[in-house]
């Protein structure tokens, strides 16, 4: 039984390593992006990525002004501005619904889905988030949108 348990642990470790490798490849211009809030905050909201997509805090900041869309993505405010918070511009829409990325309005805005108010984010236009970056953001939401 000891050898069988050891083999299971080794297989789980190899699977986890393969998943991490795939995740970094998916992240494209943000290879350190992970499905955690801390990573999304740093790699998406606060950083202009290698593809030239501007950091979200360029517009969504309260530094000296009212943030775009009434949403402040500065480090100390972002989580409380996103999770279980209604959109300021689209009645009935919630910015982030833990466990439900497909109905989270932030996903609609970054994908440019039909029915959004205004334009696809970032407002400045292309380059937009890459599909892999969006997938990782959606995975954070699907995993419960924890403050991790």
Task: Describe the structure concisely for a colleague.
This protein has helices at residues 2-26, 37-45, 78-82, 105-111, 131-142. The protein is mainly α and 148 residues long.
Features:
single chain, 148 residues, mainly alpha, 5 helices
How are the secondary structure elements laid out?
Blueprint: H1 2-26, H2 37-45, H3 78-82, H4 105-111, H5 131-142
Order of helices and strands: HHHHH
User: What structural class is derived from the secondary structure elements?
Assistant: mainly alpha
**Structure annotation, total helices:** 5
Describe the largest sheet. Answer: none
| Fraction in beta strands | under 5%
Tally the beta strands.
0
Low-confidence stretches: 6-20
| Rounded average pLDDT | 85
Task: Quickly count the domains.
Answer: 1
- What shape does the CA trace take? globular
The span between the termini is 36 Å
| C-alpha Rg (nearest Å) | 17 Å
Percent helix among the residues? 25-40%
Assembly status: single chain
Q: Can you characterise this structure?
A:
The chain is mainly α and 148 residues long. It has one domain (2-142). Helices cover 39% and strands 0% of the residues. The chain contains 5 helices and no strands. It has helices spanning 2-26, 37-45, 78-82, 105-111, 131-142. The longest helix has 25 residues, at 2-26. The radius of gyration is 17 Å and the shape is globular.
């Amino acid at each position: 039984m000891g050898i069988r348990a050891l083999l299971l642990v080794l297989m789980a470790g190899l699977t986890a390593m393969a998943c991490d490798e795939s995740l970094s490849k998916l992240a494209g211009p943000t290879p350190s992006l992970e499905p955690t809030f801390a990573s999304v905050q740093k790699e998406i909201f606060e950083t202009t990525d290698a593809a030239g997509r501007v950091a979200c805090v360029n517009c969504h900041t309260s530094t000296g002004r009212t943030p775009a869309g009434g949403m402040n993505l500065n480090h100390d405010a972002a989580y409380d501005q996103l999770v279980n918070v209604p959109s300021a511009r689209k009645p009935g829409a919630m910015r982030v619904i833990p466990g439900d990325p497909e109905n989270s309005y932030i996903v609609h805005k970054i994908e440019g889905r039909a029915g959004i108010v205004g334009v696809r984010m970032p407002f400045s236009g292309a380059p937009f988030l890459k599909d892999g970056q969006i997938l990782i953001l959606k995975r954070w939401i699907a995993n419960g949108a924890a403050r991790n």
